Amino acid sequence: MAGDLARFFCAEAARERGDGLAGTAPYGRVWVLIEHPGGWPPNGFEGIGLEPALSARLFAAARARRARLLLVRRPGRRRDAGPRRWAVLHHDEHGAHRQTWGTWEKDTDLDGVVEALRGPGTTGHPPVVLVCAHGTHDVCCAVRGRPVAAALGARHPDLLWECTHLGGDRFAANLAVLPDGVYYGNLDAPSAVTTLAEHLAGRVGAPHLRGYTDLPPPAQVAVAALLARHGPAARHAYEIVGTRRTDSGWRVHVAGAPPYPRLSEVEVRTHRTAPHRLTCRGATPSAFLAHEAVAVRTLCGPDSR
């Protein structure tokens, strides 16, 4: 299958190889969402033809905050009445989830995004749920993402958006809960419904977790290993308190809130894989760094208080 360009699907190939999910969430604390119904160009935001000076301002403001720019639309490409929406989502250094929302009808209305990127945003908003359905970027994102978006949109119409490229096409269907900063992958409609229901109830589980976007890959793997061992936990139940480089990877120390161990050590092994085709459109094989938890040790037990 990998040699047949007409039939190659990166998500199928990744599952056959057994590519690990944990540790694959791209770094991010700030996201910009711009509603753009209808078809999306392969390069997403860059291809929607905004006035050049405005595009330059948006890119500069986003780059200054290390923000990711994503196009969004409601599932089914329905056309909601009224102006389109935009949002700036922040996961700040204290873990607070902040949002700013606005609307736009003409290009210059998006200057509000530039201003919002300079502000703190406000808390108390419901989470934003994104499912990558960017078929012109990668076929698997459309084939696997759209059924997931439809299933979740039927249950959570006010939370759910389809979006452009989230990263990790081979893990489609990909889901991000923002500004929580939690990525899930390898989803289908039934597993997505269950996974999101657990998340919205305050329980992050390990089976489909790619990672937390405010953590580097070895720390993401460490948290996922603890969730696998001790069961689902709240988004901030675990805190990375130390990392140490080893010959084969990392030793990560993680503090837990009760009833989880107060201090754990996770040994994470890192290696570079053989080259593989990683996306449907990318015919050139590429290697990547894989991270795997090989040992989990409890250094200090649950707080008996």
Q: Report the helical percentage.
A: 10-25%
Q: What general form does the structure show?
A: globular
Tell me the radius of gyration: 20 Å
Q: Give the rounded overall mean pLDDT.
A: 91
CATH topology of one domain: Glutaredoxin
Biggest sheet strand order reads 4-3-1-2-6-5-7-8-9
Q: Return the CATH class of one domain.
A: Alpha Beta
Name the CATH superfamily assignment of one domain.
Glutaredoxin
Total strands: 13
Order of helices and strands: HEHEEEHEHEEEHEHEEEE
Structural class: alpha+beta
Question: How large is the share of residues in beta strands?
Answer: 25-35%
Distance between the termini: 56 Å
Reconstruct the topology from this structure.
Layout: H1 10-17, E1 30-35, H2 52-64, E2 68-73, E3 84-91, E4 97-104, H3 111-118, E5 128-132, H4 139-155, E6 160-163, E7 175-178, E8 182-184, H5 189-200, E9 209-212, H6 217-230, E10 238-245, E11 249-256, E12 263-272, E13 289-300
Parallel strand pairs: 1-2, 5-6
Antiparallel strand pairs: 1-3, 2-6, 3-4, 5-7, 7-8, 8-9, 10-11, 11-12, 12-13
Helix pairs in contact: 2-3, 4-5
Brief digest:
The protein is α+β, with helices and mostly antiparallel strands. The chain has helices at 10-17, 52-64, 111-118, 139-155, 189-200, 217-230, and strands at residues 30-35, 68-73, 84-91, 97-104, 128-132, 160-163, 175-178, 182-184, 209-212, 238-245, 249-256, 263-272, 289-300. The chain contains 6 helices and 13 strands.
